[in-house]
Every structure is written in C-alpha cells, then in structure tokens.
Amino acid sequence: MAEGKKSTGRGGTTKAASAGRGATSARGGSAAKRGASKGGAKAPRQARGGITQSVQPDAQLAPIVGSSPLPRSELTKKVWDYVKKNNLQDSKNRRMINADSKLRPIFGKDQVSMFEMTKLVNQHVK
Fold first, then answer.
1. Of 12, 51, 71, 75, which is most buried by a Cβ count within 10 Å?
2. pLDDT in tens, 37-66
3. What angle do CA 78, 84, 88 make, to 5 degrees?
C-alpha cells in the first residue's frame, strides 16, 4: 500500500487520505479562484417586493405587530408569535386559528385556517 493512503477495506481511500489533495470544487476550480473571477464587490441587494417588501400595518393590525413598517416575513412571524403566545390555535385541528378580540376585526370571523390567515392579514397593510 502507498505510504500516504489508508485503506478503507474496500479498495478506496479514507477522507483523511484524500483531504491533502487541495480544496477544489466539483467543477474543478478552487474556492479562491471562483470568488475573484468577476472582479469587484457587488452592492447589497435591495428588497424589491414579495416577502421582503416593507409594509405599514393599519390601525387594526398595529396592536398585534406594532405600528412601524416591517417586512412581510416579520409581519407574518409576529402574527404567529401572537397566536402562539395567546394559545389561539385550535386544540383539535392545529391548522385553524381561533380569533380573539384583537384578531376578530382582521379576520372578520371567529376561526380561519392558517393559509387564509396570511391572506386576511395582508389586506390590513399599506
């Protein structure tokens, strides 16, 4: 057996034996070469829309998530935090959300599904 390799018992080499070959990617280039190929650093991406778009909650939604502008992802997270904190998920069907006095004006009914909840909450943002 060659001096730098350890046998795995199946005719191959171990990871430790192959680690000394250098850090190359599956395409054959090293990590250092790939990062510097285009030249110059890119400017950070700006949030354009969708889940990263900053939205302003209306007066009915403000008591739950706050009145300052925030991304849709954070808005949804804060609504879920409120639901869990106040134990508003249905005990038998966890996909259903039971409305309390703060959520009833937003939902328009006593119980909604988790998928419908996002749609209804998004109607209360600018």
1. 75
2. 565 677 676 656 788 889 999 999 999 999
3. 115
- DSSP letters, 54-115, are EE-B-TTTHHHH-SS-EEHHHHHHHHHHHHHHTT-B-SS-TTEEE--TTTHHHHSSSEEEHH
Cα(1)–Cα(76) distance, integer angstroms: 60
Q: Which of 82, 105, 79, 83 is nearest to 94 (CA)?
A: 83
CATH of the domain at 73: 1.10.245.10
| Residue 56 belongs to domain spanning | 50-122
Residue 4 predicted with pLDDT over 80: no
Domain contains 54: yes
Q: Kindly give, in sequence order, each residue whose CB lies less than 8 Å from that of residue 105, ignoring residues fewer than 6 positions away.
A: 60
